[in-house]
Design goal:
The chain is an alpha/beta fold. It has three domains: about 10-65, lambda repressor-like DNA-binding domains (434 Repressor (Amino-terminal Domain), Orthogonal Bundle), CATH 1.10.260; about 70-165 and about 300-325, Rossmann fold; about 170-295, Response regulator (Rossmann fold, 3-Layer(aba) Sandwich), CATH 3.40.50.2300. The protein is about 45% helix and about 15% strand. The protein has twelve helices and eleven strands. The strands form two sheets. The chain has a six-stranded mixed sheet, sandwiched between helices. Strands 2-1-3-4-5 form a five-stranded parallel sheet, sandwiched between helices. The relative contact order is 0.11.
Length: about 350
């Protein structure tokens, strides 16, 4: 059975139903001139009745605006990044702009390809999460369109761009201090991907947390991970195989902590009775694990909202500042006091 495609509703048809000229319809839809309120209501009613959808390409030719904010994310599936996207959508709501999202999978070549696609679609601003691009790449892009970067310490202010990075050191320090304040003295750490600067910052915070309690740093208690669940399973296995009296582990993120919890379960060990766990990121599901996970909260939705508002201000010709919301240790039931 052949399906006959539905004809696209035209501006002329909207004009006929609304009882105005096609030029008036265009001015109302494009916001290019003040129009009588009664005519505006008539056009809006005709648009709703006919299900009219403006042709984006034609509209951009008229207005000189694509209405697109490009978003580059490493991983669309991660709840960490989906929270940011929610904040971006909220921040752009009610504006003439919509997000166009692409994933670079933590691969520099893929990320450059995605940025090229976004720019070919005439994105008027860019939001970049983390990424494997070097500072030169990011500055080159920021020289073309307003750009804001999350999770990287890059200098873009001279180009009218911005960057925000959470306090990974302070958050990791607070997480480790929470463990030492509960009597833990042998604390392991499953590190994040060493290619990411936040992994090294969280390691540094872990070391500072130990120093605060007068505890020595032992490199043997740090095992390599990559922020993914399987690396948490493997990392916890390596720590347990050391044969050391480890009573707590600080994981570089919540995904790692989920894997670590599975490794403990497979060895008949319980959290927090046998070993305490702390994560980082406070992903939405962390409050519902068994037991609920103590974690360092990064306000990702708020960060997305702040970046969207920064770009909107830049697109209005303003010179706003941008800064990351503060991290916060969220205490739940995955840490027990050591007797």
């Amino acid at each position: 059975m052949n399906v006959i495609p539905k004809r696209r509703v035209t501006v002329r048809q909207v004009a006929q139903v609304a009882g105005v000229s096609p030029a008036t319809v265009s001015r109302i839809l494009n916001g290019t001139a003040a129009v009588d309120a009664e005519k505006r209501r008539a056009v809006e009613q005709a648009v709703a009745l006919l299900g009219y959808r403006p042709n984006a390409a034609a509209r951009s030719l008229v207005t000189g605006s694509s209405g697109i904010v490009g978003v580059l994310t490493p991983d669309l599936a991660s709840p960490y990044y989906s929270d940011v996207l929610g904040g971006i959508e909220e921040g752009l709501e009610g504006s003439p702009y919509s997000p166009l999202i692409g994933s670079g999978h933590w691969n520099r070549r893929d990320e450059q390809r995605v940025l090229d696609v976004l720019l070919r679609h005439q994105a008027e601003g860019l939001i970049v999460f983390g990424s494997s691009l070097d500072e030169g790449d990011l500055r080159a892009v920021a020289g073309h369109v307003p750009t804001v970067v999350l999770g990287r310490r890059v200098h873009l202010t001279d180009l009218g761009g911005g960057a925000m990075s959470f306090d990974n050191v302070g958050g990791a320090r607070a997480a480790t201090r929470h463990l030492t304040q509960h009597g833990h003295r042998v604390i392991g750490h499953i590190m994040g991907d060493p290619a990411h600067e936040d992994a090294h910052e969280r390691l540094h915070g872990y070391r500072l947390g130990l120093e605060d309690a007068g505890l020595p740093f032992d490199p043997a208690l740090v095992v390599q991970g990559d922020y993914r669940v399987p690396s948490g399973v493997l990392g916890m296995g390596r720590l347990l195989d050391l044969g050391r009296p480890i009573t707590a582990v600080f994981c570089a993120n919540d995904q790692t902590a989920i894997g670590a919890r599975l490794a403990l379960y497979r060895r008949g060990l319980r959290v927090p009775d046998d070993l305490s766990l702390v994560g980082f990121d406070d992903q939405p599901g962390s409050a519902y694990t068994t037991p609920p996970l103590t974690s360092v909260r990064q306000p990702m939705r708020e960060a997305g909202l702040a970046m969207a508002r920064f770009l909107l201000a830049r697109l209005r010709g303003q010179s706003p500042d941008v800064s990351a919301p503060q991290t916060e240790l969220v205490v739940r039931e995955s840490v027990a006091r050591r007797r």
